Amino acid sequence: MVSMCLRGFLVKLLAFITCSVIVFTGGKFLFERQLAGHVWLMLAGVATAAIVFVLSQRKKKSRPQPSCSGRVPGRRGSERTGRMSAFTPRMKLIACLATLLALSLHAEDLHPAADASGFVPLFNGKDLTGWKTTGNWLVEPDGSLSLHPREGEKGWKRFDAYIATEKLYGDFVLDLEFKINAKGNSGVFMRVADMREPVKTGFEVQILDTYGLEKPGHHDCGGIVHGTGPSKNMVKPAGEWNRYTITVKGRHVTVVFNGEKVIDASLDDIKMADRPALGHIAFQDEALRVWYRNARIKELK
What we know:
Elements: H1 2-32, H2 39-62, H3 79-108, E1 120-121, E2 131-132, E3 137-139, E4 145-147, E5 163-165, E6 172-180, E7 185-192, H4 198-201, E8 203-208, E9 242-249, E10 252-257, E11 260-266, E12 280-283, E13 290-299
Antiparallel strand pairs: 1-13, 2-5, 3-4, 4-13, 5-12, 6-9, 6-13, 7-8, 7-12, 9-10, 10-11
């Protein structure tokens, strides 16, 4: 009888630990990585824990409970069956919790961890060393980079106002966060051979306020402009931070956008066959406010 009580205690303990891990993982994504889509993991964990608790209380009320020192009178023949029927639903609930945990850990793999090896910052957080621009790009006190358009500036064809790396990059993983205002517009350019013609000599992953758009195209947020649209609209409402992890290796490009892989394509198949294999990384100046932070890169060999 003592072993039965101990087993019941261990089942509840396992359910509590599993639920706690799910809540912690969901919280980590929500507050550190701004992946609001994983809120459901926390809610599911809490809800499942509540179900486990309620069922446990109902079982206690619906049948006599054996003590840890003896048997319940009149239930000698059915004690084992009753206990197993009470145990099985709990195991099913624990299996559900384990599944949610596995989904959470899988989602975590889509963006690199904060301490992932091989990454180096693209900005030093102090000034624009290593970059070139004529635009009014400023490093904020928190280390983020933001564009403060000057009076009278407008349009996207002021290519010298884009901010571009002095260094050329070939194969890499680019990880960054960005934020725009309502109707905001910018873009992440890669492998730009000539900054006087970034649109023709490189390719761009779009940044645009297209929140709520049902079927995004190549010129909407997450798409490769003039190439292919994202498989899903993952952009958050204006004013919230978003995250891109862009991997460029050979002719292959993938874009993970707020936890979802939205681009998985070859440049040769999306009308970008003439784009070079080496070039600058640049952020577009559309004369509209935009913020970038935690920009880092891992070069692939």
